[in-house]
């Protein structure tokens, strides 16, 4: 392996060992278990507490912005959560499609992470309550060996990759 860069600690190319689009918002059933009734809205103190820790992961603002720009402003929490499932599906599916499209130069990818050890709004294919997220279904469909997809990067629209 020759992709490690000693100038940038932890940097390695060609194999991504911990990555994901972070779009793994749980379904309503899980959110209702996770948050108290008076905190049952996007951006509440309890909501942000379950978004992670530190400066980068203390809210879902990036996901909120992506939902609004791609699908329009959600009407309510239910609409937000359903739309987040679609965004999670598309994001995780695209991550694996990009890897497959760039194989063999891109030799591997490990999506972070499979499941969450506590009720969380990020980093999970299925949540603490074992409910799958949109990310789970996007990963499942794209990593299935029989799935085809169109490479929009090629001029020949009949070219498919497996």
UniProtKB/TrEMBL annotation:
Family annotation (InterPro entries): EBDG/EBM, GH
SUPFAM superfamilies associated with the record: (Trans)glycosidases (SSF51445)
Molecular function terms from GO: hydrolase activity, hydrolyzing O-glycosyl compounds
Protein name: Uncharacterized protein
The species this protein was found in: marine sediment metagenome
């Amino acid at each position: 392996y020759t992709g490690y860069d000693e100038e940038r600690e932890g940097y390695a190319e060609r194999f991504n060992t911990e990555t994901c689009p972070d779009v793994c918002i749980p379904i309503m059933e899980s959110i209702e278990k996770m948050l108290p009734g008076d905190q049952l809205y996007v951006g509440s103190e309890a909501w942000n507490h379950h978004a992670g820790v530190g400066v980068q992961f203390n809210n879902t603002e990036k996901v909120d912005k992506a939902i609004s720009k791609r699908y329009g402003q959600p009407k309510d929490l239910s609409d937000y959560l359903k739309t987040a499932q679609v965004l999670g599906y598309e994001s995780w599916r695209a991550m694996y499609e990009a890897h497959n499209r760039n194989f063999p130069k891109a030799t591997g990818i490990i999506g972070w992470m499979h499941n969450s050890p506590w009720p969380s709004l990020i980093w999970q294919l299925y949540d603490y309550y074992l409910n799958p997220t949109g990310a789970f279904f996007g990963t499942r469909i794209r990593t299935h060996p029989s799935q085809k997809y169109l490479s929009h990067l090629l001029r020949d629209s009949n070219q498919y990759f497996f």
